[in-house]
Specification:
The structure holds three protein chains of three kinds.
Chain A: H1 5-25, H2 29-55, H3 59-89
Helix pairs in contact in A: 1-2, 2-3
Chain B: H1 9-29, H2 36-64, E1 73-81, E2 86-92, H3 94-113, H4 134-153, H5 157-178, E3 183-184, E4 190-191, H6 193-221, E5 225-226, E6 232-233, H7 239-248, H8 262-277, H9 286-293, H10 296-321, H11 323-349, H12 354-375, H13 378-409, H14 420-423, H15 425-438, H16 445-458, H17 464-472, H18 474-491, H19 507-525, H20 528-551
Helix pairs in contact in B: 1-2, 1-4, 2-3, 2-4, 3-4, 3-10, 3-13, 3-19, 3-20, 4-5, 5-6, 6-8, 6-9, 8-10, 9-12, 10-11, 10-12, 10-13, 11-12, 11-17, 11-18, 11-20, 12-13, 12-16, 13-15, 13-16, 13-19, 13-20, 15-18, 15-19, 16-17, 16-19
Chain C: E1 2-5, H1 10-33, H2 36-62, E2 67-79, E3 82-90, H3 92-115, H4 122-141, H5 145-163, H6 170-203, E4 206-207, E5 216-217, E6 243-244, E7 247-248, H7 254-262, H8 264-272, E8 274-275, E9 278-279, H9 280-295, H10 304-307, H11 313-322, H12 327-334, H13 336-339, H14 343-364, H15 370-390, H16 394-421, H17 434-437, H18 439-453, H19 459-473, H20 484-509, H21 534-549, H22 564-569, H23 574-577, H24 586-612, H25 619-625, H26 629-639, H27 644-716, H28 723-744
Parallel strand pairs in C: 1-2
Antiparallel strand pairs in C: 2-3, 4-5, 6-7, 8-9
Classes of the chains: A mainly alpha, B mainly alpha, C mainly alpha.
Chain lengths: ~100, ~550, ~750
Amino acid sequence: MSIGLGHFVAVSALLFSLGLFCLITRRNAVAILMGIELILNAALLNLAAFSRYLHGQPDGQIFAVFGIVLAAAEAVVALAIVLQLYRAFRTVDTAETTELKG
Amino acid sequence: MDFSTTSTLLTWMIFTPLIGAGAILVLLALRPLLRQALLDNLARAIGVACTAVVTGQGLILWGGFRGADGALQFVHRLVWIKQWSIEYFVGVDGLSISMVLLTAAVFLVAAIASVPWWGRLDDAHHPHFSKKKVPGYWILFLLLETGVLGTFCALDFFLFYIFWEVMLLPMYFLIGIWGAPPRVEANGRVRGGPYAAIKFFLYTLAGSVLMLLAMIAIYHNSGPSTLADGTASPHSFNVMALTQMFRDGTFAGASPIFGLAFAQAMFLALFIGFSIKVPMFPFHTWLPDAHVDAPTPISVILAGILLKTGMYGMLRFNLQMLSPAMVWAAWGIGILGVINIVYGAFVCMAQKDLKKLIAYSSVSHMGFCLLGFAALTPQALTGCVFQMFSHGIISPMLFLIAGVIYDRAHTREINGFGGLAERLPEYTGITGLAFMASLGLPGLAGFVGEVLVFLGGFGAADQGFRVLVAVSAIAVVITAAYYLWTMQRMFLGKLNEKWAGLWDMNWRERLTLYPLAAATVILGVYPAPIFNLINSSLHQVLSVVSVTLHAGR
Amino acid sequence: MHLEHFPLGLIPLLPLLGAVYAGFFGARLQRRWREPVIYWPAIVLPWASFVITVVAVAKLAGAGHHTALYHRAWSWLSVGSLQVDVAFQMDRLSAVMALVVTLVGSLIHVYSRGYMKDDPGFWRFFSNMNLFMFAMLVLVLADNFLLMFVGWEGVGLCSYLLIGFWYRETKNAVAGMKAFIVNRIGDYGFSLGLFLLFWGLFLAPVVTTGDPGDRLAAPGGPHAAPAVDAAEPGAPAAADTGIHGGAPLTSVTFREVQTIVEDPARRDGILGQRVLGAGLITVVCLLFFLGAAGKSAQIPLYVWLPDAMAGPTPVSALIHAATMVTAGVYLVARLHFLFAASAAAMTVVATVGALTALFAATIGLFQYDIKKVLAYSTVSQLGFMFLAAGVGAYWVAIFHLMTHAFFKACLFLGSGSVILGCHHEQDMRKMGGLRKLMPITAVTYALAACAIAGFPFFSGFFSKDEILWKAFDSGNLLLPGKGIALWALAAAAALCTSFYMFRSYFLTFTGTYRGGQDAGHGHGHGHAPHESPRSMTVVLVVLAALAVGGGWIGLPILWGLPNRFEQWLEPAFAGSHHLIESAHRGHGAEWGLMALSVAIAIAGWFAARWLFRDGKNPIPARLLASSRPAVRGVYRTVFNKYYVDEFYGRVFVRGTRQLSELLARVDRDVVDGLVNLWGSVGRVVSDVQGMIDAHVVDGAVNAIGAGSVRLGRSLRRLQTGRIQSYVFGLTTGFVILVVIGYLLA
C-alpha cells in the first residue's frame, strides 16, 4: 500500500482535532499554546501534502517552511506572554486570569 | 384720606439693596474676567456698602420724622395696576418707623457678620458659610432686605402681600443652602438646613394663604375709593382707606363667615397668618429649627427683624384696621401671650443647645409683645412696640454670641463647655451683658419693654389681665434662672481643658456686638428717642379702639 | 414737701465712672502698671461721693424740716399717666442711708486693697465694688419706685458678680446664681406691688369735697375723655395724666404717692379698695414685703445669704451685711405711710422679722465657719430691723440698720483679717489663740461683738434695746397680747446673738492655735497667722470706734438725754406718726426691759465664756459626741439649717426643672410632633399619588425600557470573555452545520 494524499489528510485531520480538543478543553495557557501549535502543524502538513500531490510544485512546501519559522517566533512571543501572565497572577490557568471580565 | 407723595426716600431705601443685588448679578456676568476671590470680595463689599447706605438713609429718615405728629410721613404713592386699583403706596408712621430703623441697623450688623474679614476665621476643617457661593448669598441677602423694608413701609394691602412673600424666598435659600448640612439625630429624625428651610417656608406660606384669602375678601367687600392719580375705583387695597371704611361701617353689610361677623373672620385669618411669624404658641416650632440651622447672620435677621413683621402686621391690620374685632379678641390674645411667655421660659430651661435656648427665649420675649398688644392701654402698647425694638437689638446680640462660640468650638452644647470666662474674658463680659439685657435687668433695654407691658397690662380694662400679668411675671424668675444657669455651665467653674485653645473676640465680632451693646445700654437709660417716634401714633390708634371699647359696653 | 436743687446725681455717678474705668481698661492697665492704677481711682471716687454726701446732708440739715434735695436728670419712661424721671431725692431718711453707704462702702474699699492684694482679678473686683456703690446709691437716692428698682436689681447683679468672684469654683458660681434667682422671686413681689399700687391709686374714686362721701367722681379729672364708671375702671382713654387738685392722679414717685395717699379726698377711696378679699394697701404692702424679704434675707427667702459668703470677705461685709441686705428695711421705711395704714401688713412684717431673728440665731449657734456665723447673725439682725419696722418704729429700724452696718462690717472685716491671717482658713475649729498673734483684729472684733450683743453704752445696745422696747410697747399688732410674743422671740434671739458672737470670739481668739497641724501644706513660709497690713487694721479701728460710739446719737429719751437720731428722722416719718399706736406700758416697764436686755447680753457672754474660753471646757465636745438621740437629733437638725435648703432644692428647684423638661418634651413631641405629623400626612398623600403615577401611567413606559434592559442583561451572560468557549461554540456550530448540510444533502 503506497502512501497517498488521503493518509496525509487523515493525519492532518487527526492532528487538527487533537489540537482543537486541546485548545477547547485545557485551561493551562501552555497547553492551549500546544493545542494551537498542533492546529498549525496540521495546516502546515496539509500545505506540504497538497503541494506535493496535487500541484507538483514546491510552493506549498516553501510556505510550510515559512510557516514553521513563523510558528517558532510565535511560540517565543506566546511563551513570553505566558511567562508574564504567570508572573502577574502566579498562575497560568486562564480561568483565573479574568481581570478584564465584566 | 388724601395721601400724596411727599418724599421718595422710602422708595430709595427699599430698593437700594435691590440695586446692589443687580450689581452683583452684573459682576457674575463678568465672571470670566475676574478671579474668584476678587469676585467674592466685590460681592461682599457691595453687600456691606448697600446695607450701610440703607442705614444712612434710615438716619436721614429718623432726622426728618416728626414724632409728635402721629400721621403718615414720607409718603410715596403711585398707581400701579389700575384695573384692580392696586397702588404703589409706601409711608411710615409711629407704628412702622421704629421697625424700619431697626431693619436698617440689624441688616448692617448682619452684613458685617457675613464677611470673613477683620479677624481670624477657623475654617480649616469646618467650612464657613461666608465662603460658600458668595455672590448668591449676597444677592439673596439684599433681596431679603428689600422685602423686609417693603413689608414695613407698604400701605397698599396688595403691595404688602407682595413684599411679605418676597421676604420668604431668600430666607428659604439662605437657611437651606448656607445653613447646617443635613444630619441624622439620635432619634433617627433627619434635621438640618434643608429641613428647617422647608418647615419655615411651608409654615409661613400656610399663614400667607389665609392672609391672601382675607385680603381678597376685604377687597371685594370694600367701597369705592380714589386712586393716586385721581381716578375713581370701585374697590380699594389702600390700607388707610380700608381702615377708614371699617370705621365708617362700610363692611357692616358683608356676609358673616362661619358664623363670625365679617370683621371678626378677617381678624382671625390675618391674626393666624401673622401669629405664625411672631411666632405664637402653638405655631412656634419652626423657629427653633430654623434658628439652630441657619447661619449666624441669618439667625440675627430672623430673630431681630422677621419676627417683628408678624407683630407689625398685627398692629397695622388687626389693631389699626380691624379695631372693633380687636376688642373682641383681646382676652384670647392675652392668654396666648402669657402661654408664650411662661411656656417659652420653661422650655428654654430644658434646652441643651445654646442656639435653641436663645430661640425659645425669643418665643418667650415675643410673648411680652403679644400681651402688651392685647392689653390695649397706652403703657402696654408702647411697651409692646418698645419690646419689639429692644428684642430686635438684644436677640441679634444673643445669636451673634452663639455664633462666636460656634465658629471657634464648632459645637453649641451648653454642657460641653465650662470655665470659659478664664479663657475668653471679653466674650464672657459681653455675653453677661446680653443675658442681663434679655432677662430684663433694669437699666438695660429689655427692662423698659417688659415693665411697660406688665404695668400697662395690669391696668387693662379687663381686670382678668391682672391675673395674666401675675402669671407671666413668674417668667421673670424663670428667665433669670435659665440665663444664669447657662452662664454658669458655659463660663464659670473649672476650665474644660478641651477649650484651652480658644481665642477671644476678634474685630469683626466686636464691630457687630459693641454697637448693639451700646444701644442696649443707651435705650435702657434713655428710651425717649424711641418713645418720641412711636407714642403719638400709638395713642391715636388706641383712642379709636377705646372709643369702640366704650361703644361696646 | 419743699424741694431744693442739689446735684445728687453726682453721688452715684462717681462710683459708676470708677466701675467703667476699671471694667473696661482695668485688665490692661493692671498688667501694665500693677495694682495702684486700679485701686487709687476705685478708692478715691467713693470717698468723693462720701464728701458730696456730707455736703448734701449739711445743706439738708440747714434747710427746713420738710425740705428734700432734688435732682432731675432726664425723663426716663413717659407714657400716658406713667411719668418716670431719672431723678434723685435726698430727704432725711435717704440722707442717713447715703451716709452709711458711702462711709462704710469707702472704708471697705480701703480695706479691700490689702485683702485682695495679688489677686489676678483685682481690677474686676474693684470694678464690681464701684458698680455696687453706684447701684446702692441709686437705690437709696431714687425718687421713684422704678429708679429704685434699677438700683434694687443693680445691687443684685453686683452681688451675683461678687459672690461668684472666684468663679473657678463651681460652688461659688452656684451661690451667686442662687442669690440672684431668690432675689428675683422677691422682685416679682416688688413689681406686682408697684403695679397694684399704681393702678390702685389710678382707679381709686375721688371724693369731691363739695358733698363728701356721696358722689364719686370719675377718676381722670378734666382730661379724661369719656366719663368712666368708677366700678368699671381702666378705660385706656382715661389713662392719660389726670390732674386733680395739683397732684397727679397716680404716680410712681414716692413723694407724690405719699401726697396722694394722704390726700383726704383720695384716702378713703384708696383704702376702701379690695383685692383678693383683702384691702388694696395690705396686698400692696405684702407684695412689697416679699421684695424686701428677698433682698433682706427674711423667711422664707433667706436661704441665699449664708451661701453668699462664698464671695470675698469685703463683699460679705459691704453687700451682705452693711448695705445691700438692708435695702429691704429701707424699702419698708420708705413706704412707712403705706405700711402704717395696714395693721395686717405690719403684723406680718413684725412677725416674720421676729421669727427670722430667732430662727437664724439658733442656726448661728452651731456653725463652725466663722463667716457662716456672721451670715446667720446678719439674717437675725435684719429680722430685728423688720420687727422694728413692723411695729411702726421706723426710726429705730433705721437706727439699728446704721449701728448694724458699723459693727457687722467690723466683724466681717475682722473675720476677713483672721481668714487672711490663717491663710484662707474659715473653720473656727482650726483657729484659736489668735489674740496674741493678731491683737488689733482681736480687740476690734471683741468691741464689735460687745456692740452686737448689746452691752451697755455700745451702739448695738441703744438700737437693739429700743427695738425690744418698741416691740413690747406696740399697740398696732393684730396678735393676742399685742407685741409681747414678738418681744419674747426677739429677746430669745438676743440671748442667742450674745452667745454665738462670743462663742465665735472665744473659739477664734483665745486658747491655743489649732491650725497648721496638718503639715505639708506647701506654703513654705509663715505657717503662723500674722496680723493684717496697716490699710486693713486702720479700717478695723475706725469701724470699731463707730461700733462703740455710733449709737450715741440715738440715746434713749428715757435717760433724759437728747435723741438726735430720732429728731433727725422725725420729719421723714411724720406722715405715719399718727397711725402708730403705743400700748402705753410706762417708764417702769422700759427700765425693767433695759435691765433685762443687759442681763441677756451678759448671760450670753458668760455662757460662751464658760463653754468656749481657751477651748478648755470639755462640755461642748462631750455634747457633740453624745449619742443620745434627743441631743443628736436636735444638733443635727439645727446644724443642717433645719434642712430648709434641701427642702427647697427638692420641691422648687427640682420641680421647676422637671416641669421644664416635661414642657420641652411636650414641645418637641406634641406641638412640633403635630407639625411634623402634618408634614408626614402631606408626604404620605403625595407618596400615594406618586405611586399611582409611577406604576400605572409611567409603568407602561418604564416596562418597555425595563424589558430591553433585562434582555441585554441576560444576553450579556453569553459574553464570557473566554476564547475557549467561543472556539467551542464555533466548532460545535460548525459541526452542527456540517451535519445538517450532510443530512440535507
